[in-house]
Amino acid sequence: MTALLTKRIRTVSEKPWIWAFLGAFLVWLATILFTGGTGAGEILSAALAFATFSVIVGIGQMYVITLGPGNVDLSIPATMTFAGAVSMKIMDSQDVMILPGLVIALICGLLVGIFNYGLIRALRIPPIIATLSSSFLVQSCAIAYGRGIKIKPPELLADFTTTKIAGFPILAFCVVLLAVVMSVVLHRTVFGRSVHAIGQNARAAELAGVKVDIIRLATYVQSAVLAGLCGYLLSGFSGGASLNMGAEYLLASIAVVVIGGTSVAGGFANLPGIWGAALFMFLLVTMLNTFGLSAGIRLLLTGVIIVGVITLAGGRRE
Amino acid sequence: MSTFLPSPRLLRSLLPAFSLTVILIAIFYLQPRAMSYFGLNLLLNLALPIAFATLAQMCVITVNDLDLGIGAFVGFVACVGATWLNEAPLLGAAVLLLCILAYAALGALIHLRNLPSIVVTLGMSFFWLGLALLVLPTPGGKAPDWVRAAMTFKAPGLPATIYASALVAFVVHLALMRSSYGTVLRGVGGNPRSVARAGWSILKAKMTMYALAGFFGVLSGISLIGLTTSADANIALRYTLLSIAGVILGGGEFVGGRISPVGAVLGAMTLTLAGSFLSFLKISPDWQIGAQGAILIIVLALRVVINRTGAK
Questions:
Q1: Any idea where the domains of chain A sit in the sequence?
Q2: Which of A220, A225, B32, B70 reaches 20 to 30 Å from B195, CA-CA?
Q3: Distance (Å) from the C-alpha of residue B256 to the closest C-alpha of chain A?
Q4: Is residue A143 within 8 angstroms of chain B, CB to CB?
Q5: Cβ of B294 under 8 Å from any chain A Cβ?
Q6: pLDDT tens for residues B161-195?
Q7: How far off is chain A from B118, nearest CA to CA, in Å?
């Protein structure tokens, strides 16, 4: 009986994602100990609501990072802003335009994704530089297009993104479903297995008949489309698009992937960890705010903890 | 046919100088009054801090990493420079020395734990920004007089910025491109395994390059406050992207330790001028970032064309 239990514990502790959830739990515990138990539920509920957006872009980023060293999508913040600004303008606060707005946001993502991979292929430059250069262009488009206007999202969309049932946001529920689906895609489909294979050894994958170009294109497009979706939902959630709404998601999208237990060197992805890491990141900021620290100390501690956690989580795995 | 063309390698190394010349001619054409000592001085005023930041970024890129925290770091140095370095020079200098050591330690951490430099340096950008806010919560402070004097020095003939940039480019070129240890350092970016097999310590090389990056970051922050006279925690955040763009414009590759210090300085100057050029063209500020992206893509595309002609 005890042997079985220890074995069970060992199998669980070998799952890399467990650490992210454990970290989130500890940070949450520290916060409510400080407040004396008040607001424990509200904090958790808010964490679920905000973590949702990091999870959406984190999933896209995770697929990209799994493609192997050097693969990363730095255009996510710009794409989010662009898709958010364009879809808000098209919808013009009308409920009937919700679906066309969504389609437009996804198309924005699709175009950026194709452009990104086009640059990587045509100019033969590392994805970091390609996505960085294209993010300059996309950000400018967003600034020029969404200049000085603050359009409210359609009421129905705002309701959908902010409604909670017994403290559990509907949107978070949808994104948990999305995570499950993407997890199945990752481990059970040809596409997901190909992404893994390319990340482990691109040359071997190619020789084994994996269509490397198409898979990589699909991965970059997927990341940009998810960023578009995230921009659309986040605009609905926060009462409209703003020009710096994507800024914090540059760090968030990469950090949730790494903290969540996905290998930085590529080839090994881990989806559940993204949720744990996203909760951890939000709860961390909440904790530092609750402690009533000055902005300087808060930023400083955020930096130290992120670097510390990544050092622990993202180290070399044999 | 191809024998009449210069080698692609030569063409590539001329590309940064070519970009700079094109943009200078365009500016002089649009605004002939810029063609004077005073005009050039105004145009290139901010080139030196950007050139130092670009060199810092280049050092990190040499070992196949990327520093997304250099802007925040330069901002922190500026804050220290405008407060402690002015009031208690010894303390200020000690803090700046510690910063360089911190950068070396960062290089060691990234190498030993095999961490992605993007995430670590992005995390560090919060750290530097937080520290900067603690040192200088509201914009202000005062640059030390000697820094101010050095940065406003009026050189004969050409603006002092041009002499200083040329000197820095030359020194770094000698150190990284002509010295034997410089070759090893670049080799770490090219083929770390073979460098390690040959008996060199990759850890030491990475720490050296990160320490150099910290050193140039310090120079960037100090020269910046010499121009602005006061500091602000957010003063240099845009330097992160500018420095990466500068290295690309200067002909640096992002893998393989293929870098060019002279090119990086020229790239930084081109970027400094690009801002003025766009406003002379009366392009709306909305498109400024986009135009920088477009310039990058055009230069990278030109490079591909040159490589293609070389391959034929």
A1: 44-309
A2: B70
A3: 11
A4: yes
A5: yes
A6: 889 999 999 999 999 899 989 888 898 888 888 89
A7: 9
How close is the nearest chain B Cα to the Cα of A102, in Å? 25
Contact of B32 with chain A, judged by CB distance below 8 Å, is answered with: no
Residue with tokens 């959630």, as numbered in its chain: A237
Residue range B84-123, pLDDT digits in tens: 999 999 999 999 999 999 999 999 999 998 888 888 998 9
Q: Does domain A44-309 have CATH number 3.30.750?
A: no
Cβ-Cβ contacts under 8 Å for A75 (sequence gap 6 or more) = A112, A116, A131, A132, A134, A135, A138, A224, A227
Nearest to A72 among B118, B125, B304 (CB): B118
Which two three-digit tokens encode residue B133?
């806010």
CB contact under 8 A, A123 and B301: yes
Question: Residues 51 to 110 of B: which have CB under 8 A from any A CB?
Answer: 66, 109
Q: List CB contacts (< 8 A) between A303 and chain B.
A: 123-130
pTM summary value: 0.87
Find the helix packing angle between B288-311 and B8-30, rounded to 10°.
150
Give the phi and the psi of residue A165 in degrees, each rounded to 5.
-110, 115
Return left, alpha or beta for B79; rule: phi > 0 is left, psi -120 to 50 is alpha, else beta: alpha
Q: What pLDDT, on the 0 to 100 scale, is given for residue B309? A: 76
Interface membership of A258 toward B (CB under 8 Å): yes
Please give the share of chain B, as a percent, with pLDDT higher than 70.
Answer: 97
Q: What is the ipTM of this complex?
A: 0.84
Evaluate whether the domain defined by B2-311 bears CATH number 1.20.120.
no
Tell me: the pLDDT tens digits for B233-282? 888 888 988 898 889 888 877 777 788 899 999 999 988 888 788 888 88
| Helix H or strand E segment including A111 | helix A98-123
Q: Where are the domains of chain B?
A: 2-311
Q: Note the pLDDT tens digit of each residue in A190-225.
A: 999 999 999 998 889 989 988 999 999 999 999 999
Q: What are phi and psi of A71, to 5 degrees?
A: -85, 120
